[in-house]
Amino acid sequence: MKKQILILSFIVLLGGAGAWNFLKAPVDTQPPPVTSVPQTVPVHTPEASSSDEPVAAPSASAHVPNSSENPSAAEAMPAGDAPIVYIDEKPYPLRTYKPLVLPNDPSADQWWVTQTGLDKAWDIPRGSGETVLAIIDTGFGLKHEEFANRWHTNSGESGITATEDPSSLNCTGRSLPISAACNLIDDNGDSVVDNETGTAIYENPSRLNCTDQGKLLDKSCNRVDDEGNGFVDDTTGWDFINYDNSVQAGELNPTGSGTTHGTLVAGVAAATGNNAKGIAGVDWGTKIMPLQALDDDSYGDTRSVGRAINYAVKQGVDVISLSLGSDSPDPYVETAVQAATAAGILVLAASGNDGCDCISYPARYSEVIAVGALNTSSLPASFSSFGAGLDILAPGTSITTSTWSNTNPTSAYASGVSGTSFATPLAAGLATRLLS
C-alpha cells in the first residue's frame, strides 16, 4: 500500500502525471523491443563503455566464486545453472549484478528539471524530518564538492573514545607480495577478510588506526566495532564487495568501468542545490548512506547486494535506491527486499536497459517500485525495459550529474549520461523529499 501511495504522491506533487508519467505502464503501451546492448559474454557482467562496444569479461578479481569454499557447493550446482553459495549456512544460487547505465554524447542541458516541473516542486518547503537515502551501487566520490556534509554518519561509530586496535596493513605495508592472504579483501565472499590463499591482482589500502593517521582517538578510526554490529568503523556506509569500511571509488582499480557509477547516481538523487557549484539533485536535504555492492570493475553478486540491503534495513533508512540489475531471480536478494519493505522502507530499482518486455531483478519483485526511463520528448526511452511489473517512468536520458575520476576526485561532472540507472535516483530523491 505504501508503494501505491507514493506513486500517487508523485503525481500530486508535480501537478499531474505530466512528463513524469508516474502511472502504471501496461505492456501493450510500450514501444516494441529494440536491439539491446551487444554482449559477447553472459549477462550480468560489466556493461561496455558505449552502446556499440561488446561487454568486457569480468576482471580477474577475487570475487569470482569458488565452490571449494563449501564442499557441497559443487555437488549442489545443477549442470548449466548458477553456482551455489552458502549464506548463513543456507544454499543460494549466485547471481551477478551490473550497473544499468548507457553512456551517450555529451549534453549540458538539464531538460528534466523544468519539463518535469521539479523546479516548482523545489518551491514547496521541505518537511522538518531528516530522511536517509541508501544508494546501493559501486564506490562513491566521497570528497566531491556536491556532497559536503551530505553523507549519512553512523552515530554508533562517531565520537571520542579511549581505545583503539592496531592498524590493518595490506601486503605492501607488510613488505609481502600481493596475495589473497594479505590484500585486505574478502576474496571468496564469506564476509571474512584475508582467510584465503593464492594469487591476487588487487589490494585494498592499509586501514590505519587514529594514531597512525595522526588523528585524535575517535570511534570513526579506532579499528574497533564500537556498536557491536559486526562492522568495524562503519561511520560512512560499508563496502560489501571488498568487505571493509571504505566506499571510496577507485581504491582497487582507479580506471575501472565501475568507478564513476555510484557518484553519477548519487548526484542525480541528491547533489546539493544552491551551492553555486555544478548541478542540483532532486533532494538537497536528505542524508545519503553510500553502500558499495559493486566493485571498481562493475562486478557485484547475490552476497554483496543482499547484504547491503540487509545492512540498510538494520540502519533504519527511509528509501533504498538500486541502479543495478540481474536477468535472473535471486532468492537471497528477494528475501532482503521483503525485509526492507516489511520494515516500512521504500525500495526503488531500475527496470533495465534492454528495451524489451524483460524487467530486471530486483525491479521485477512486486515489493519494489520498478522505474523505467523517459527520453527528452517525455516518451519511453527506446532502451528502457518494460513489462507488467513496471510502476513508473522518470527522465533517464541526457542527464548531467556529478562524477569521479582519479585525476579529479572533487569537482568532476559528466553530461549526456543515460539509462534507467538515472531514472531511479530521480524517483528515489523525490521519495525522500515526500517523506521529509
Fold and architecture overview:
This protein is an alpha/beta fold. It is 18% helix and 14% strand. It contains 8 helices and 14 strands. The strands form 4 sheets. It has a 7-stranded parallel β-sheet, with helices on both faces. A 3-stranded antiparallel β-sheet has the order 7-3-9. A hairpin with an 8-residue loop joins strand 13 (399-403) and strand 14. Helix 5 packs parallel to helix 8. Residues 14-62, 64-79 and 101-109 have low confidence and may be disordered.
Topology of helices and strands:
Elements: H1 2-13, H2 73-76, E1 84-87, E2 90-93, E3 96-99, H3 111-115, H4 118-121, E4 132-137, E5 238-239, H5 261-270, E6 287-292, E7 300-301, H6 302-315, E8 319-322, E9 324-325, H7 331-342, E10 346-350, E11 369-374, E12 392-395, E13 399-403, E14 412-417, H8 420-435
Helix pairs in contact: 5-8, 6-7
The side-by-side strand order for the widest beta sheet comes to 5-6-4-8-10-11-12
Helix amount = 10-25%
Shape: globular
Series of secondary-structure elements, N-terminal to C-terminal: HHEEEHHEEHEEHEEHEEEEEH
Task: Say what oligomer this is.
Answer: single chain
Please tell me the overall pLDDT: 82
Radius of gyration: 21 Å
Tally of separate helices: 8
The biggest sheet amounts to: 7 strands, parallel
What is the number of strand segments?
14
Instruction: Give the end-to-end Cα distance, rounded to a whole number of Å.
Output: 19 Å
Unreliable spans = 14-62, 64-79, 101-109
Structural class: alpha/beta
Strand content: 5-15%
